[in-house]
Each structure stands twice: as structure tokens, then as C-alpha cells.
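Changelog entry

Holo records now carry the ligand SMILES as an explicit input line rather than a separate metadata file. Below, a converted record for magnesium ion, shown in the new format.
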Amino acid sequence: MIIEFEVSGQDFKKAGEASFEIKNRLKRLGLPPDIIRRIATATYEGELNVIIYAHKGKVRVCVEDKCVDVTIDDIGPGIPNIQLAMKEGYSTAPPHVKQLGYGSGMGLPNIKKNADWMEIRSEVNRGTNLRFKVNINNKEKA
Amino acid sequence: MKLKDLAEKMGWEIVVRNAPVEAEVKSGYASDLLSDVLANSIEGDLWVTRQTHLNIVAIAVMRDLSGILLSNGVKPDQETVEKAMEKMVPIFRTNLPTFEAVGRLYQLGISGER
Ligand SMILES: Nc1ncnc2c1ncn2[C@@H]1O[C@H](COP(=O)(O)OP(=O)(O)OP(=O)(O)O)[C@@H](O)[C@H]1O
Ligand SMILES: [Mg+2]
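Structure line, unchanged by the conversion:
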């Protein structure tokens, strides 16, 4: 099963709508609550990064037998130094975003923590592709 | 203690009336940083914060929290209340500063241990 959502940059009013819907669908599929929580958390972090930093993006969730595979692609400024971006505490969020409680530089590390596998590719001035997988039968993590 | 009994005992104002308040609250987390809550909250936590914008509702849903307590007398935005009603997330308010609100919860055995 594949679920797809569009996300618009800077639209904080709709922030989380993709993640809400994905969580609902996974619940209906009867996945274990702790697995759903990990997917929902990581998806929300990815969705919010599109809203905060990019122009627009697409969230695509593919539910397979053994794992849930999430891809979040955006058109935006890209990430010049992915290793740096992955460091906990590193953030380029502007003050108005920080005021909302975002921008602690924990989002990408959070995705890594919740996922069993994660990959980021990015091209400056083009966009970012984030992909992560959560195994359905692995209850070891987070 | 049940969320509704806590609210009554503590004298919190109920902000969202249609949300479920029967959950047994055993633990809590206090933070105003959303990614911190996403990283460190556990299922069933009562979340104490002074963030008032509508995105707090999504955080509570993604993490399966039992509810949100707004401390320091802050008031939620109208769209936060609407979103919480839609997603059935209980929200309460207190005029107490966060430290005091959390301290009183701790006295009732609600723990922040992870
Ligand atoms: N989709 C993206 N496009 C462009 N830059 C990004 C994107 N995602 C992340 N970044 C960059 O990587 C940094 C770290 O991202 P991360 O999600 O870890 O933290 P944050 O968004 O700054 O804060 P938090 O997620 O804790 O609210 C961001 O500040 C930003 O510079
Ligand atoms: Mg982020």
C-alpha cells in the first residue's frame, strides 16, 4: 500500500496533516502502537523540515510486508553539509521558527533514532531527499 | 490517577471539553521544545508546556500523550483549541509556573523518569 501527501513550505497551520493521516492509516492496518509511534515521530520531523526549510515537498509512505518505507522529497535550498546537519544541536532555523519551539537541531537525529535505516541525499539550491525504513517486526528500537 | 481527577484536584481549567479524560496518568514530561518532546516523551505522558500554537496538538497525537497542560497562565490560540477538539486531545490550563505545576504532580506520584 502506498500513501502520498503534498506538503507546502511555511504552512505551519497545516503542519502535521500528512503525519496525522499516515498515523491513522497505519493504525487501521493494525500495526503495533510502538512501531506506529516511531514512524509517526520520524515522519513528523521530516514533514516539518519541509515546512520550515523548503518550498514544497512530497511524503510517500510504502507499507511492505516487513517494513514501512518513507520517502520525503522536497524542492528547496538543500543541505550543504549533511554530516553537520545530522549533528544534534545544529540548526539554521530562523527566530520566528524557534519561537514556535522548533529549531533545537534534534529532528534529523530523532529520525535516525526512530528508524532502522535512514538516508539523506541533497543538492544545494535543488532540494533534499530523505528516506527511512522502520521494520515492522523489530521492537528493539526507541 | 485519572486525567479528569487530576484536573479537578489541581483546579486546572479545562480547555478542550470533548476529549477523553479517563486515561490513567502515570508519567509526565515538561518542555517547550517540540523535537525534545518528540524525542523524549513516552506514551501516556502528560505534557507540561507554555507553547500555545496549534502544532502542539500534532506532537501529542504523534507521541500518544494523555494530554497537555499549559502552565504559567498562558492561553491557547483559538485554532489550537479547534485542532485539539478535532483530534480529541485533552488540553488544560493552570496559572502556576511550570516548576510549581510539575512539583504538585510529582507529589501525587506522577513521575518524569524515563
Ligand atoms: N529539508 C531540508 N531542506 C533544507 N535544509 C534542511 C532540511 N532538513 C534539515 N535541514 C537543515 O538541517 C538542520 C538540522 O535539521 P534538524 O531537523 O535536525 O533540526 P532543526 O529542524 O533545525 O530543529 P528541530 O528539528 O529540532 O526543530 C536544519 O536546521 C537545516 O539547516
Ligand atoms: Mg527539524
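Spot-checked after migration. Residues 55 and 80 of chain B are 7 Å apart (CA to CA). The two ends of chain B are 19 Å apart (CA to CA).
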